[in-house]
Amino acid sequence: MNTVALTTRQCGWISCMMIAVFAGLAALTGVAPPAAADELPLFRQVAKVDVTTSLRKVRRVRFAVDTSFPPFAFRDNAGALTGFLPLSVDTMCTDLKIKCEFVIQDTSNMESALTGNEADVAVYMKARDELDFSKLEFTRPFLRPFGRFATRTSSPIRKTDVRTLAGKRIGVREGTTHASFIKRYFNRSLLVSFPNHEALYEAARTGKVDIVFDDAFRLMFWLQGTISRQCCHFVGRGYLDRSRFSKPLSMVVRREDNDLRKVLDYGLDRLQSSGRFALIYDRFFPQSPY
């Protein structure tokens, strides 16, 4: 295996999802192949650890969340905090019998909220390599973004291997990691760049390109929304590229809060192994983006 394609169940990250490697791709490109992911990821490897001592030290935790990222975190019509992240945190805290509170923070202010002791944990959509490792500590990842292909429902394209897409027009948003991925691994296809997502998706809807490649979550909500007019669907499975668009997302604590980090990892493991993580996931996402 390689940095682009890993068998997800081996790693224990937010999903180390089961990856199906496309046969013959390495021979066609001269490099190790990208990978496709299973329907529902198992993002964590459940660790058998004793956190009894750490649990006694952690009784009240303040979680900072940004409500501008639905369905990950947002306010409902009544103004109540909800979303995939808050409900996951709340369920974990109930299971561990910890008193947890939420502090609403913009993503740009979360690091200072931690270091300034305004919050104990940051739960937000920001990759680990964008944060200050000298001051912060991270749980094992709870999520990884994937890339996916989508095409018109009338399209004859049913596979997304290099051979099938050779000569096809693949739409991407210019300047993105998804564009560099296609340029690197699908160099037998015709790369068509667009300045924004609106233009990219409209090209998919109207058939100006044969297929598009983009962030799986963003594509999923466009496909399920009214703007797409039900024109298109996912084809193939999700692509994992650790060096580009699949950077791990983690909960973040202050470096000195090692007991809290251990408790969070333990709680996230229990959330997955109990099946509650999958139930919460299904509640907020209209289909699997993987």
Percentage of residues in strands? 15-25%
Task: Provide the helix percentage.
Answer: 25-40%
Count every beta strand, where a strand is a DSSP E run of 2 or more residues.
Answer: 14
> What are the low-pLDDT stretches, counting only 5+ consecutive residues below 50?
1-38
SSE sequence, one letter per element: HEHEHEEEHEHEEEHEHEHEHEEHH
| Total number of distinct structural domains | 2
Under the CATH scheme, which architecture of the largest domain would be assigned? 3-Layer(aba) Sandwich
What would you call the structural class? alpha/beta
Largest sheet: 7 strands, mixed
Q: What is the highest CATH level, the class of the largest domain?
A: Alpha Beta
- Give the helix tally: 11
Keywords, separated by commas or semicolons:
290 residues; alpha/beta; D-Maltodextrin-Binding Protein, domain 2; 2 domains; seven-stranded mixed beta sheet; 14 strands; elongated
Commentary on this structure:
The structure is a single chain. By secondary structure, the protein is of the alpha/beta class. The chain folds into 2 domains: 52-143 and 248-284, 3-Layer(aba) Sandwich (D-Maltodextrin-Binding Protein, domain 2); 147-238, D-Maltodextrin-Binding Protein, domain 2 (3-Layer(aba) Sandwich), CATH 3.40.190. It is built from 11 helices and 14 strands. It has helices at 8-11, 25-29, 52-57, 84-96, 110-115, 162-165, 177-185, 197-206, 216-224, 258-273, 276-284; strands at residues 19-21, 35-37, 60-65, 74-75, 81-82, 99-104, 121-127, 136-138, 147-152, 169-173, 190-194, 211-215, 232-239, 249-254. The strands form 3 sheets. A 7-stranded mixed β-sheet has the order 1-2-13-9-12-10-11, with helices on both faces. Strand 10, helix 7 and strand 11 form a beta-alpha-beta unit. Helix 4 (84-96) crosses helix 10 and helix 4 (84-96) runs antiparallel to helix 11 (276-284). Mean pLDDT is 81; it is low at 1-38.
